[in-house]
Amino acid sequence: MAFLFEYGLFLAKTVTIVFGIAAVIVLIVGASQKPKSKKGEIEVTDLSESLNLSKQTFLEQTLDKKALKLLNKEQQKVDKEKGKEKDSQQNVFFIEFNGSMDAHEVSSLREEINAILTIADKDKDQVVVALESGGGVVHGYGLGASQLARVKQAGIPLTVCVDKVAASGGYMMACVADKIIAAPFAIIGSIGVIAQIPNFNRLLKKNNVDFEMVTAGEYKRTLTLFGENTDKGREKFKEEIEQTHGLFKQFVADNRSQVAIEQVATGEHWFGTQAMSLNLVDEVSTSDDLLLSLNQEHQLYKVKYKAKQGVAEKLGLQFGQAFERVSIRALSKLNSSKY
Among the listed ranges 58-67, 86-95, 126-135, 313-322, which one has the minimum average pLDDT value? Predict the structure, then answer.
């Protein structure tokens, strides 16, 4: 056991030194680079081609030669007819949005929607968004909802699919859509507002540490991390939270008039099947089923904005991933040596 402990300690020191050097290299590379505006590019993937190829591959492995030959002949006729009707082709532009707490993904969503709006035809095309988010900062998700609203304002049909979760800010975005589709066990709702803040004032006092904060404006700060909070400050903070909740409820009510807002705006969440009975969603299904259905008569394109990363960012990401892998392996070895 002593040997294993020493070995583990040596391994931890080695890993620390190696990644310390790597961190310095990343900082040097980052400092040496001239600041440039971060740019990216729009990637368009032909989803119809991908789905049709999967279908063809499966058929080739399951049908006999005669049946396959007949099927291919019929498909050629269909493709020929589609070629003639290309001018009237109906397109579906598919976007994936996986939102985090700070909603920084909205910047990519904006680029994707900008690209779609430059070419989409409101009389033929539509937009489908696969949305997944448990919510986060109000201003971030408010902007995300505004970006989706641009699609509707352009007169283009918008469908939001929720396979896993659209709660709080996630639902704020989803409710903008003309149609919401949710998987049976997707988490929907949580129309409420929460704010939490720790306070270390008693700990500072116990250790004879003074904390001073100077503000201009009675309510510039209501609750703080280190100051002594007051009942007046708490009441004002609660008032602000209630105001935000009121705006959230009104936003949902404006976008989904069929919802009994006081019934669903309690901060609770529901599964997809329950959410449908409350009119929070319009259909219980998955994004996969929707895309397969649309692919029968539409051309599907996946639109994704990919931001370019600098050398320092790439190195930092690689070193971070490598550190995570090494740490997990080291911990696994140490843990397994105890038994």
Answer: 313-322
Q: Which residues contact 324 (CB under 8 A, 6 or more apart)?
A: none
Give the active site residue among 77, 84, 220, 338. 220
> Which stretch of DSSP H or E encloses residue 47?
helix 47-62
Task: Give me the sheet containing 158-162, strands edge to edge.
Answer: 40-46, 299-307, 91-98, 126-132, 158-162, 179-182, 283-284
- Other C-beta atoms lying within 10 Å of the C-beta of residue 189: 26
**DSSP β-ladder status, 269-271 and 179-182:** unpaired
Strand, coil or helix: 32: helix
Nearest alpha-carbon partner for 147 in 127, 121, 124: 127
Task: Give CA–CA dist 9/264, Å, rounded.
Answer: 54
Residues 6+ away with beta carbon under 8 Å from 29: 311, 312, 315
**The whole model's pTM is what?**
0.75
Strands (E), the chain: 40-46, 91-98, 126-132, 158-162, 165-167, 179-182, 187-189, 269-271, 283-284, 299-307
pLDDT digits (tens, 9 = 90+) for 241-272: 999 999 999 999 999 999 999 999 999 999 99
What is the crossing angle of helices 311-336 and 2-32, to 10°? 170
Q: Is 124 tagged catalytic?
A: no
Nearest by Cα to 310 from 106, 79, 33: 33
Sheet holding 269-271, edge to edge: 165-167, 187-189, 269-271
In this structure, are residues 174 and 259 in contact, taking their beta carbons and an 8 Å threshold? no
Domain spans in the chain, listed from the N-terminal domain onward: 1-37+308-339
Catalytic (active site) residue 220: yes
The residues with which 297 forms a beta bridge, in sequence order, are: none
98: phi then psi, degrees, rounded to nearest 5: -120, 100
Concatenate the DSSP letters of all residues of 140-162 into one string. Answer: HHHHHHHHHHHHHHTT--EEEEE
Which one of the listed residues 168, 190, 287, 302 is annotated catalytic?
A: 168
